[in-house]
Design goal:
By secondary structure, the protein is α+β, with helices and mostly antiparallel strands. The protein has eleven helices and twelve strands. The longest helix has 20 residues. The radius of gyration is 20 Å and the shape is globular.
Amino acid sequence: MLTRARGRRLRTGLAAAALTAAALGGLLQPAQAGVGPEPARDRPHHDKRLQQQLERLVAQEDGPPGVIAVLTRGDRTQVYTAGVGDIATGRPPHPDDHMRIASIAKAFSGAVALRLVDQGKLSLDDTIGELLPDQPAAWHTVTLRQLLQHTSGLPDFSADPEFLEIITADPRHVFDSRRLLDFVADEPLLFAPGALYEYSNSDNIAVALMAEAATGRRYEALLKELVYRPLGLRRTSLPQGYRLPQPYFHGYDVAPPAEPEDISEAISASGVWASGGIVSTPRELGAFMRGYGGPELLSEQTRKAQLTFIPGGSSEPAGPGTNAAGLAIFQYTTRCGVLHGHTGNTPGYTQLAATTPDGTRSLTFSINTQTSKSNKPALLARLRTVQENFACALLDGR
């Protein structure tokens, strides 16, 4: 379990953005690049400059123990790694390692909701009051569209003092995921629905509850039917507990001069559920984003709504380039072109998954420590620079 000092850092981060921005640190680690028997830097068609950037990232004092970037162009995939996915064994990261995808789970709840819109079981104009009448009356005019675009004004349950007290005392506490909004049920909206953009974990809890109310089916079953099966995802799941399937990309709290602490299984996923609890792999995360961010899953009309962006809106942490917010998806305008995707961070992990708008190319970029604008902002700036360079490689590569 977490030490007392690390528990304090966890609480600080949870107060800022719950399980998406905990104040966890960096670690000096030697680069150990490679997937398979030969080092990645020596593999054919690998860009040595990109490889060197990963190695410099893990060699920095505040850098992650390991990193894996997976670039897919049609039926061709390139895997770049540096550092380690497991400090105890020295094993490098692998594209089939399980990992916590953090707030990229919000894109999955978006995929469920928007597929139900296509089926006529939900409308983007449906309100909390119509589908979830037991929620506070002050929230009743909030629409599904506003929840998906983080313009709802719902207070963030994950910043609530009572929630933070519970999870600080017992990080593996099993919450009733469908009652997470109860933590803020006595609070008014932060602003009039549609008036402002503010990223909130509460939004996607409400989205999942609306999907359940509209169908009479559990959210986990809807994920399997509407997302996992159509996209062929077999290693992606939404657990309630703290265990990760083997093998997994280990996540670390690293705060020199202390030794790194493996926190991969320190926290129960039940406390974030549809807003951040999904476990996937780099390979499957890319497949999901190509389907969701491209034209495969949604009708043209629904996709047009999905890709109506609010300039400046970003997930946590911000993705590469200039960010704008759509419906459970973000636009990243880099110096080389545009990608659609989502980011996330949680204790032990920072994630990016992005695709070209036509869904033919994807990039996933995963590190096994956490950074955000409130925690190690300099590391985040360096990370975003490297991510943009990989995005350019994806966009420019033939």
